[in-house]
């Protein structure tokens, strides 16, 4: 039985455990754009490329997931959006990841839960392709992020608070490993420790120059540890309060 000092790790998936910006995110964005274009056209709204790109990014910034904006403001079905956004001709061929991730995860004491705003089918296929599924005791995808029957993906405080309560763990014994700073900020507000993974952010045209500036700037107060790669986490256990 785990002691009350054993940490619980919450790991993001995309751009944390693999390089989603290489090919997967561009494909997802293109898929979303096609779907959003169709929805806007059917509703009689402007559906040119600029309007669609703006809407996709706006909803992502506002809600943490483009999906929520499309559901709330355009009445789309969650399962339809997730299916259309995650259509890939060859997902395994698009994956780029460092070797040895499983070995590094194994060096981290405590249980690990995958906590991703990606859909279940996609994230499970990706985890198995990476050979990482055996390292996670639970797999929480966006479909499971409901609170009071409302979808509450990251960075929802309600969802994270519900998860901590279900796991019966003190937030200070929990560590969120993420590339998205808004998710880290919310976690810290609840008392969760935070590790920011940055290697897939700098130089990423999909994320823009502001993200690169943020990576290079002073460490945000809500980040305990900034690492370029998950492989560096075992060396930062003391800083995260997770020393063996």
From TrEMBL:
InterPro entries: HAD-like_sf (IPR036412), HAD-SF_hydro_IA (IPR006439), HAD_sf (IPR023214), Pyr-5-nucltdase (IPR010237)
A GO molecular-function annotation: hydrolase activity
Swiss-Prot/TrEMBL keywords: Hydrolase
Gene3D superfamilies per UniProt: 1.10.150.450, HAD superfamily/HAD-like (3.40.50.1000)
Any Pfam family the entry gives: Hydrolase
Oxidoreductase is among the record's keywords: no
Keyword Hydrolase assigned: yes
Name the record gives this protein: HAD-IA family hydrolase
Organism, scientific name: Herbaspirillum robiniae
């Amino acid at each position: 039985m785990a002691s009350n000092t054993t940490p619980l790790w919450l790991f993001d998936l995309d751009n944390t455990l693999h390089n989603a910006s290489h090919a997967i995110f561009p494909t997802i964005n293109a898929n979303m754009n096609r779907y959003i274009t169709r929805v806007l056209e059917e509703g009689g709204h402007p559906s040119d490329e600029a309007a669609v790109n703006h809407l996709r990014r706006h909803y992502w910034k506002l809600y943490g997931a483009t999906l929520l904006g499309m559901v709330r403001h355009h009445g789309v079905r969650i399962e339809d959006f997730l299916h259309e956004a995650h259509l890939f001709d060859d997902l395994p061929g698009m994956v780029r990841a460092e070797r040895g991730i499983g070995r590094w995860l194994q060096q981290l004491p405590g249980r690990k839960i995958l906590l991703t705003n990606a859909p279940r089918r996609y994230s499970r296929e990706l985890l198995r392709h990476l050979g990482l599924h055996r390292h996670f005791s639970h797999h929480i995808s966006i479909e499971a992020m409901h609170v009071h029957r409302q979808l509450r993906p990251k960075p929802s405080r309600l969802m994270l608070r519900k998860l901590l309560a279900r796991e019966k763990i003190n937030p200070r014994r929990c560590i969120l490993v993420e590339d998205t700073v808004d998710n880290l900020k919310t976690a810290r507000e609840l008392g969760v420790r935070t590790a920011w993974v940055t290697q897939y952010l700098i130089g990423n045209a999909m994320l823009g120059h502001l993200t690169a500036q943020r990576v290079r700037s002073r460490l945000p107060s809500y980040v305990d540890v900034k690492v370029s790669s998950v492989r560096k986490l075992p060396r930062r256990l003391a800083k995260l309060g997770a020393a063996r």
